Request: fold
Amino acid sequence: MNEHAVAIPHPDSKIACHMIVAPRRHVAAFYDLDVQEQRIIWDILRDLRVRIAQSLTVLGFDAGFVDLDPDTEAAHTHVHLIPRIAGETVRRPSGAEWVDLGSV
Reply:
C-alpha cells in the first residue's frame, strides 16, 4: 500500500492469499492509469507474489485485470492476484482478463 495503490485481501476468497490490488485514483480501465501508476501496480503484484511464496508453497500465480464500464458509478479498475496451490482448485472471478504470472 502506498499513495498510489492499495492491496487488500479479497473479501469473499475461496483460497488463501487471494488479493485485490487497486489504484487510489478512480479510473475504469487499467490502461487509463498513467505509466507510473501501472508500474506501481506491477511492483505491488511482484512484492505480493514474493511474500505469499515465502509463506505458502505455490505453483504460480494468476492475475485478473478487471476493467469496468466507465458509465457505471462504481467503475474502478482493479487486479485480482490468486496463488495456484497444489491440490486446490479455485474458480477465478469472471469479468477479468487473466494472465499467468508464473512462479516467483
About this structure: The chain has a mean pLDDT of 91. The beta strands are 5-9, 19-23, 60-66, 78-84, 97-102.
